[in-house]
Amino acid sequence: MKSTTGIDGVLLVDKAPEMTSHDVVAITRRALDTKKVGHCGTLDPLATGLLIITIGRGTKIQDLLMSEDKEYTGTLRLGEITSSQDSDGEITETRPVPEFTREQIEAAFSKFHGDFYQTPPMVSAIKKEGVPLYKLARQGKTVEREPRFVHVYAHEILDIKPHEIDFRVVCSKGFYVRTYAHDIGLELGCGAHLKTLRRTKSGKFPVEGAITIKELKAGPASVIAERVLSLPTVSRMRGA
Predict the structure, then answer these.
(1) Are residue 59 and residue 83 in the same domain, yes or no?
(2) Rounded to an integer, what distance in angstroms lies between the CA atom of residue 31 and that of residue 47?
(3) 3 lies in a domain?
(4) Is the domain of 82 the same as that of 179?
(5) What is the pLDDT of residues 109-150, one digit of tens each?
(6) Are 43 and 86 in a shared domain?
(7) Measured on CA atoms in the order 162, 163, 164, 170, is the torsion positive or negative?
(8) What's the rounded Cα separation, in Å, for the pair 182 and 212?
(9) Is the peptide bond before 220 cis (omega within 30 degrees of 0)?
(10) What is the pTM of this model?
C-alpha cells in the first residue's frame, strides 16, 4: 500500500459541477494531508470532467502538462447571449432562432477551425494592470482585451435539438470554450451561450477512470494514494 507521505505525481480527478478548481485542490490537500498540490488548466464552476492535480514534485511539471491540447464536449444554447458567455451569467440579450439546416450549423462551426484569434471574455482570470478581468466585470467595466492565437484541431456536431447544439472540440491551451460558443452564436446571427461543458481529455490523459469528488472526499488517504500516477508513469503515458 502506497504511503501518503512524500507523494510525488499526478492525480486525475473528475470535477463535479458548482465547484472551483481551487476547491478540488483544497479537497486533495485534506484527503492526502499534504500542502504541495496544484492543478493544470482551470475549469469554471459550470464545467465538469478532467482536472489534472499535481502533487509534491509533480508540481514541477505543471506548466508542461498545462501546455497540452484539450478535448471537451458541451452544449451551446441558441438565442440567448449572457454576460459571462455561459449559463452562469445573466442573459443580456435574446434573439429569435431560425430553423437552421445542419449545413448552416456546420458552416458556422467551420469558421472556427484551425488557426484563428480569439478575444478572451471579460469574465476571466486574465489580468489588466494587475487586476483580474472578472473583478472589473463585476464593477460593470469592460476593457479592451488582447486577442489570443488559438487552434482547433477537430470539432464534431454531436446532436442538434431545438435551440441547442451538442458538440465536441479538440483545442489548444488557453482556449475559451464559452467564447467559442458565443462566437458561433454570433456567426449564426441568433447569439448563443455555453450551457454545459465537460473536459474529456487533456494531452494523453482521459477522464475515464479518474477519481470522483465523492471518492476523493470519502478516502481513506491510502486508497487515494494508490490512484496517484508516479512521475515515471506520467512520462511513459505522455510518450516522453
Answers:
(1) no
(2) 22
(3) no
(4) yes
(5) 999 999 999 988 766 556 555 655 556 556 566 666 688 999
(6) no
(7) positive
(8) 30
(9) yes
(10) 0.90
CB 118 within 8 A of CB 144: no
239 forms beta bridges with: none
Q: Per the residue annotation, which of 14, 23, 33, 44 is the catalytic one? A: 44
* Tens digits of residue pLDDT in 47-59: 999 999 999 999 9
CA distance 236 to 125: 32
Q: How far apart are CA 90 and CA 83, in angstroms?
A: 5
Whether 44 is catalytic: yes
Residues 115 and 154 in one domain: yes
Whether residue 65 contacts residue 202, with contact meaning beta carbons closer than 8 Å, is answered with yes
> Domains in the chain: how many in total?
2
Beta partners for 200?
Answer: none
C-alpha to C-alpha distance for 127 and 111, rounded to whole angstroms = 28
Below-70 pLDDT ranges, the chain: 1-5, 122-145, 240
Distance of CA 127 to the CA centre of its chain: 19
